Amino acid sequence: MEAAAGAGMAAQAPAGSLAARAAADPESVDLFLLLRAIERGALEKPRIGRSRAAREDSVTLGQEPFAGFPAGNVARLEIRAGRPHVTTRFLGYFGPQGALPLATTLDALAWRDARDPSFLRFTEIVSNRFLQLFFRAFADARAITEADRPAEDRFAVHLARLAGGGGASCGKAASAAAGARIGLAGLLSARVKTPARLSQLLAATLGIEARIVERVPSWLRFEPTQQTMLGRARSRLGRDTALGARQLSLGDKVAIEIRAGSLAEYRALLPGGKKAGPLAELVFLAFGRHVETEIRLGIPADLAPPMRLGAAGELGLTGWIAPPGTQAGDGRAGRSVPYRFDARYVPGAPGATAASGEGPPRPAPPRDATPQEAQP
Predict the structure, then answer these.
(1) 62 and which of 14, 124, 321, 327 could share a cystine (Cβ 3.0–4.6 Å)?
(2) Is the domain of 274 the same as that of 140?
(3) What residues contact 330, with CB distance under 8 A and at least 6 apart?
């Protein structure tokens, strides 16, 4: 009967699967690996050890009485009541290391040989749940088991939150690179933000070459209540006095210079392109709202197409008037081609229309006017 049950289980299991191997040669299969495989194949049911009723179990477990020391911890795999049933040879009532006296094990063996399984079925009422909970404790202590069910992967959620994603305050920042939040959680969770980390993040997720320019001049605007007024607030010389309504800062803004290798990649990084939204989201994940960021897109000068009225050209982005290197026969072989960094914009925060490509982003300050030259 046992051989017929094992043959039936092997016939139902896919060829080469762990279940088919367990049905044919159970002693060669580890119990935990077998239960993980069964749990992966029953996605519609709760995880093993978390079911609230017997009908929700994806597998039932029991122990086979034995008097010696077994060669494996799986004795048999069969189909019982429409679900897999695994019979083990460890962690239970019977055997030299069991909870019951050895005489009880010998009695159970005699009843089994007499084809009276009533006592074994009675012990399975309790041992089934104990074995399930034992496996659950094993699986919950190992993060790799969370990958068996991606929809219920708690470890991936922990990594995403460690990297700044998954929370309500992030909005849609987590949608750009879910894999980046997990694979590059070490970069995103670092307290110190460095240019090298952001460059590695952009290269690993979007495959773009970027250089981070630090200490870009920017203006810090004071609120009306924070401005100096004679005889009133903030008028102590050398302590909290500031002339004007803003102050020049060199530590609150960075520029990201991106060198596109082709015109198609350049257009993909422009506002509204397929990479503009993910780029804005990754920048937000790396810097948050603490650092002002400016995107500077570069393209080889000989790849910059000239503007054609009614055909092509966007002012400030792709509107070049007779750019160098567009004449016939002018190639890049044997010479270094300069890059043109004409397109500049400020990426919007995730969740805004600018970040998603549904609207124009905020334009960057004019390149010809430095903060020192701008009027207050």
Answers:
(1) 124
(2) no
(3) 302
Residue 171 burial (CB count, 10 A): 15
**Residue 127 sits in the same domain as residue 13:** yes
Residue 122 shares a structural domain with residue 207: no
Q: How confident is the model at residue 12 (pLDDT cuts 50, 70, 90)?
A: low
Enclosing domain of residue 80: 2-145
Q: What mean pLDDT comes out for the span 165-180?
A: 50
pTM of the model: 0.62
Q: Which residues contact 75 (CB under 8 A, 6 or more apart)?
A: 26, 27, 64, 66, 87, 88, 89
**What is the reported pLDDT for 170?**
46
* Claim to verify: residue 205 and residue 320 sit in the same structural domain: yes
Phi, psi at residue 248, to the nearest 5°?
-75, 135
Do 285 and 201 fall into the same domain?
yes
- The closest of 47, 80, 44, 43 to 61, measured between CA atoms, is 80
- Quick check: is 94 in a domain? yes
Report CA Rg, the chain. Answer: 33
**Residue 231 in domain:** no
Does 108 share its domain with 204? Answer: no
- How far is residue 336 CA from its own chain's centroid? 39
Residue 110 lies in a domain: yes
Closest by CA position to 362, among listed 244, 264, 276, 263: 276
| Claim to verify: residue 11 and residue 85 sit in the same structural domain | yes
Residues 132 and 206 both lie in one domain: no
User: What gap in Å lies between CA 105 and CA 94, rounded to an integer?
Assistant: 5
pLDDT, mean of residues 339-354: 73
Q: Which has the closest alpha carbon to 361: 241, 276, 240, 257? A: 276
Q: Find out whether 257 and 295 touch, Cβ atoms under 8 Å.
A: no
pLDDT of residue 11: 47
How far, in Å, are 26, 259, 310 from residue 203 at the CA level?
A: 48, 12, 36
Q: How far is it, in rounded angstroms, from Cα 27 to Cα 357?
A: 58
- Position with higher pLDDT, 371 vs 234: 234
Name the amino acid, one letter, at 309.
L
DSSP state of 359: S
